[in-house]
Predict the 3D structure of the following.
Amino acid sequence: MNLTEEIFKSETEYLPALESFFMMKWIEMNLSSHDLSHHRRVWKNAKELLQNIGLKEISKDPFFVKKLMIACYLHDIGMAVDQGERHGLHSKSLCEQYLSMNNFNRSDYQDVLAAIENHDNKEYSDSPSDKGLLTLLSVADDMDAFGYIGIYRYIEIYLARGIQPDKIGHMIRENASRRFKNLESIFGRFPELVEKHRMRYLILENFFIELGSELESF
């Protein structure tokens, strides 16, 4: 089975239940920057990474695509409980619920749970060198932080975390820079992919440079 067939099979079999579970847990949360549409985009980004690399190079696990899809759809679901930097722990707990509800053996999904718990380490101090679940989930998530969508997402979540508006621009630029450099370091041998997302990163970078200049003029 080739990659396209594997993706289609996984989406057909598991996507409806994943989205239904997400909406059930998210129903009272009003945080559009991390709602279901964010998770759909992260999965789309992950598929883009897979299509560049090729499945054979990444993993011999026959369930890798399914696992990556689960991780993409549940990595931020914990924000329904906690919008802070510990949301990965809550996401992991809710993923455990999803696995139990669907009669999946938890021991077979330890790599999924670990990726979800640790996906928001944007210091990249202990980033794995391989292109496993955690790497692909983290980079796919990073890719959604660029462009015009990224501008909105950053502002909403940083304000939700109580960060002062006059500090947001500088903090966002530092965070986004780390994200893009990580993408570039891991996927540098795919120049079309890197350049596509460099343009999106620069949209965000230039916006906050200009915003900072205007704020300093007052």
Observations:
- The chain is about 70% helix and 0% strand.
